[in-house]
Write a structure and sequence with these properties.
Residues 34-88 form the HTH cro/C1-type domain. The protein is α+β, with helices and mostly antiparallel strands. Helices cover 44% and strands 13% of the residues. Residues 1-5 have low confidence and may be disordered.
Length: 277
Amino acid sequence: MITGTVDIARELAVFLRTRRESLDPRDFGLPARRQARRTPGLRREEVAELAGVSTDYIVRLEQARGLRPSAAVAEMLARALRLGPEERAYLFGLAQQRPRDVGEPATAAAPSLARLVADLSPRPAMLMNHRYDILAWNGEMAELLVDFGALPPAERNGIRLCLLHPQLQESYVDRERVVRDGIAHLRAAWSRHPGDEALNALIAECLDRDREFARLWAERDVRISGRGHKVLRHPAVGVIALQFEVLMPLQDPDQRLLIYRAADEESQAALDRLPSR
């Protein structure tokens, strides 16, 4: 049972020790019993060598002697201890550091998330990654915005479509606010993934091709809109006022599930007239 204020240094010490002791020396090419190992797992000096730090540093960490690893040291410890993504995030949290990018962002929807997007019909829904690449969508979303399936995969990006696609350029009644919110989200994503080459290429393309994007990007607004209101002009059914909600899957925190619903009865009637219905 946890009571009172959590001692971060003590929790970091215990976490590092338990993870060290859970490792099998044979997985590292070390003998299972060298000088009659008295404790399970790796020795402190072995972890120190793998992490590129001194044994004394590991000892002081495991004794909760007030050390706070830097982001670089936390990364080396995570690799040395072979931590999974959740354990790595926990270590960085205890070290009060921000983790660097891990792996490549998803470029395809997990099957379970793709099914969820389809199951959300008749509400328009789609799944995007942190840079607004559209990974999955249902028929209602395609009818509401644009036929994503007819586009080359490289062009299935929400920001790119909003700025550069002829149909969507004129769809939003309050276009500047929508673009401003999207750019603020993109800047927040860029701060978390500065090494994402595809994201950097997207930003460079938009800066080069769209003056509005360049102007708003220079304002350095950083914001993520998890819910809100948009009004669209649809060529077939007229004006539609929408409420939106953005959800983040726990297993895929860099992905966004966007769901639209009608904001009023007239808009619901317009949604019901979409060809996909």
